[in-house]
């Protein structure tokens, strides 16, 4: 049971870290889908 919980914790840490790294590298979906014909609203 203990290895399974450790794997869940590792999976959560890896996924959060990967999200932060990919957003910082410009691989977020809004950056990838933005073009001259795409208008993105920033919530304002």
Q: What secondary-structure arrangement, pairings included, does this model have?
A:
Layout: H1 2-24, H2 29-33
Largest sheet: none
**Number of extended strands:** 0
Inertia-based shape:
rod-shaped
Number of helices: 2
Helicity level, as a percent range?
A: 55-70%
Name the helix and strand elements from N-terminus to C-terminus, one letter apiece. Answer: HH
Distance between the termini: 47 Å
Share in β-strands: under 5%
- Structural class call reads mainly alpha
Radius of gyration, in Å, reads 16 Å
**Overall pLDDT confidence:** 82
Which regions contain 5 or more consecutive residues with pLDDT less than 50?
Answer: none
Explain what the structure shows.
The chain is an all-alpha fold. It contains 2 helices and no strands. The protein has helices at residues 2-24, 29-33. The longest helix has 23 residues, at 2-24. The mean pLDDT is 82.
Quickly describe the structure:
This protein is mainly alpha-helical and 44 residues long.
List keywords for this structure.
64% helix, single chain, 2 helices, mainly alpha, rod-shaped, 44 residues
């Amino acid at each position: 049971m203990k290895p399974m919980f450790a794997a869940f914790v590792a999976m959560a840490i890896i996924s959060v870290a990967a999200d932060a790294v990919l957003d910082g590298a410009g691989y977020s979906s809004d950056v990838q889908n933005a073009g001259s014909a795409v208008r993105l609203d920033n919530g304002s």
